[in-house]
Specification:
Two copies of one chain form a homodimer. Chain A is an alpha/beta fold. Chain A contains twelve helices and 14 strands. In chain A, helix 1 (32-38) runs antiparallel to helix 9 (260-276) and helix 10 packs parallel to helix 12 (363-387). Chain A is globular. Chains A and B meet through helix 1, helix 2, helix 3, helix 4 and helix 9 of A and helix 1, helix 2, helix 3, helix 4 and helix 9 of B.
């Protein structure tokens, strides 16, 4: 036997994390009960207790999403893995996928769809706007896609896409409706079945108050049909819902070893959401966001998105002229332990992103961030000038 | 706004998990310090603290695997996602992939490779045996693959494949060597660089004493070269190492929101392994396994695998004639809180699988399982006859 090489042997100290209030685009702080659940000793992924817990997670997810879809489950990866799963399972080579792009995550959907061999067509809006029904109908007529993919809550812009009527359009033009609900689940009204959504995905670390690591996924019977009629295997074993269905369905056939502790966490997170009630949670997010918006306006700051399209979970604030936005965010993190986000893609350097999601959507956090903007923006301005 | 549908609203109790000693094929029990780390409040995935932690995880993984590969990181999914990543990144349509199959996970590699358009060729051995160098060389000459994929520690059979000389064969016949180390990392001697392994993956929940949810992945510069020379995008956005490299490398460009708490956990798990020392951990696994084997033999039980090929982490024990193996395992779980595994695939109903991995590889657990086999196998036999 060779001898052990110690080049990469490092004696690190036990982990000691800094205290952070996470008011960026996510992750958001987790609920303490969720963190407790995460640290419970694992059980086997075929243990009768765990199998029962899987059913509970599925049922609670259906409630949170307002869907009765049989195939509703958390993918064993982050939200991005569930995003990929919606496309991997339904796109076949040559299928036209129409992506309605109004921000960073629309672009990602287009990138992903292309990797699955789709004929990707796009319809675009400026970052900060939403689509009208007419714009979508025109694009549907022009491209006649198999799937219309779009983002409900654009995390890069803070826009909430109005959904009324879009599902009906997709039925009319015979395509599936695929919806990103990463920044809406648990914080913003969502009615998947009412809206006739066929495929949706989300994450665990925003409105659900759980750490990142699971990707809620759901699929309607119309989408199931497309999966069943595939002429080729799903080009991704890990995300293949026809296999996952045998584990999450009544057969309980081993697929992969489930991330059991993350599922303890999301079960608890979803339970707490059900305990609070969806409408109560949505109202809480709305009220706190409105207070944030009016407070920021009182400080002379401007929102990037029109009020009627603004997400209650994530607010984009224009960085005032002359302020180093990245420097200010770093100052809040390093000196005050508060994380806010910078702009992404087109909006890099132009906006901050302030999240009030799940456990973090509280009046106290609204005050905290407003007070910091009031006291630190001016101080920071001075620091900035002094350094210059 | 529609009204909220309460069909799927369930008022579940706060989570309360049963106590389990996990002596099956994994997950294994996690180290208490790892569970504590998991429950720390999350930080942002671009937080300077987190970015430093990523580097620590990478360095500790290099030590655990005995590799200096730059691209060494945990995939944000379970071991199966890392398994898929090794193939997704390197296989291009039409590439010949030779899979050396001697159990369930070899078959899975073949299934996965096919999904990426590989021309899959196989060489097979009976479940319970390992390959000789001659057998592999013959198959390499016959198929001239771009990749030879095989399993170091077959979790379905309990066989440890001797690795000496295989890497040299792969250099001679100009192919990459891809190795499954799911049930060996942390528990069985592994020298990736010495063995000239180009691609490897593992899991968090066995030898590392962390819950399932991360998939350690590593890639040599030879494999990087194959990735760099692809004529098409990696057909999987989530697992695309050329993108992940920008986040895990020095650029720190956002790819997906990392499962930060799981990474807290694996950082602690790897730190504890480095603190113990690799050789010490390997010796501990070997000693405890040998005591398990001799104890089982004293009870008249027979191992499925020849001693020279036996894995110290996972033992396959033949189910004696007349015993309902599944019923016995369920009895241990329900009456004694001890999980052992049943057979998988070809070995279903024929063997039990007993794991002594990571935190669970202790003399106390060896005694516990031997005492249970001694007292319960006979009791169970009576119960079984009484019920019949």
């Amino acid at each position: 036997m060779p001898s052990v090489n110690l080049n990469h042997h490092k004696a690190f100290q036990p982990i000691c994390t800094p205290e952070r209030l996470l008011l960026g685009p996510g992750p958001s702080n987790a609920h303490p009960d969720v963190l407790k659940a995460l640290s419970l000793p694992p059980v086997g992924h075929l243990d009768p207790f765990y199998v029962e817990l899987m059913g509970e997670v599925q049922e609670l997810l259906r409630y949170a999403w307002q869907t009765s879809n049989r195939l509703t489950l958390p993918m064993s990866g982050t939200g991005s893995s569930a995003m990929e799963a919606t496309l991997a399972n339904t796109v076949e080579k040559g299928d036209t996928v129409l992506v309605a792009i109004k921000g960073y995550f629309g672009n990602r959907l287009a990138d992903m769809a292309g990797r699955y061999g789709a004929n990707v067509q796009v319809v675009e809006k400026k970052w900060g706007q939403a689509f009208s029904l007419d714009e979508l109908e025109e694009a549907l007529i022009k491209t006649r896609p198999a799937i219309l993919a779009m983002v409900h809550a654009e995390t890069s812009t803070g826009v909430c896409q109005p959904m009324e009527g879009i599902g009906d359009l997709c039925r009319k033009y015979e395509c599936l409706l695929l919806l990103d609900t990463v920044t809406s689940l648990g914080g913003v009204p969502l009615f998947l079945d009412e809206w006739k959504v066929d495929l949706a995905y989300s994450c665990s670390q925003k409105g659900l108050s759980c750490p990142p690591g699971l990707g809620p996924f759901t699929m309607s019977s119309r989408a199931e049909e497309k999966l069943a009629n595939r002429s080729t295997k799903v080009p991704n074993w890990y995300l293949d819902v026809s296999l996952l269905n045998k584990y999450w369905g009544s057969d309980r056939v081993y697929h992969h070893t489930a991330p059991v502790n993350m599922n303890f966490g999301i079960r608890e997170a979803l339970r707490l959401l059900a305990e609070e009630g969806l409408e109560e949670a949505w109202n809480r997010h709305r009220t706190n966001a409105e207070n944030l918006w009016s407070g920021l306006q009182r400080l002379g700051l401007e929102m990037h998105v029109d009020e009627n399209l603004r997400l209650p979970t994530l607010t984009t604030v224009k960085i005032p002229e002359g302020i180093d936005g990245k420097g200010f965010a770093l100052h809040l993190l390093n000196k005050h332990g508060v994380e806010i986000g910078g702009g992404l893609g087109e909006l890099a350097g132009k906006v901050w992103r302030i999240g009030l999601m799940g456990y973090n959507s509280t009046p106290e956090n609204v005050s905290r961030v407003l007070n910091l903007f009031e006291s630190e923006l001016s101080v920071f301005d001075k620091i900035d000038s002094a350094a210059a």
